[in-house]
Task: inverse folding
């Protein structure tokens, strides 16, 4: 991105760890959503503007500089729709950072334990989904069974 980051939205913001980090680097507008009531309550108690809902149900007319999805896409019923929604909520040139585990990297099959994962992704499938939603992939990194894509609108 060629400009300072002024706004950030986190999909699955949990108890506000990443939101707090964003606040600490002086990002001006910080919002998020999470389906877990207790996590949202903690984030709200920290002073963050967050909603208790699935991302698919989040309503926003604002466009953000950065949208984060950290270990969330595998827990949603509508992954492609969520990716398209993230695209629609970004400023032109905005960044979408998406982090998840990938089946082909999970050699020991530890990520397949019952832990609420609705979808299991192969990296090439998620890459195709991101590109089909309009994103340009600018980076892909992996460590163990986990990987992330950095994408630009």
Result:
């Amino acid at each position: 991105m060629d400009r300072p980051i002024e706004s950030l939205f986190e999909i699955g913001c949990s108890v506000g760890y990443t939101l707090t980090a964003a606040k600490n680097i002086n990002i001006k507008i910080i919002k998020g959503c999470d389906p877990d009531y207790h996590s949202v309550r903690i984030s709200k108690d920290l002073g963050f503007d967050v909603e208790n809902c699935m991302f698919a149900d989040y309503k926003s007319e604002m466009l953000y500089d950065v949208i984060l999805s950290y270990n969330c896409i595998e827990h949603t019923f509508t992954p492609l729709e969520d990716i398209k929604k993230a695209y629609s909520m970004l400023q032109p040139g905005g960044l979408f950072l998406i982090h998840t585990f990938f089946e082909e990297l999970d050699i020991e099959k530890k990520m397949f334990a019952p832990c609420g994962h609705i979808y299991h992704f192969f990296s090439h499938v998620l890459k195709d989904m991101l590109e089909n939603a309009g994103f340009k992939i600018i980076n892909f990194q992996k460590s163990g069974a986990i990987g992330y894509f950095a994408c630009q609108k």
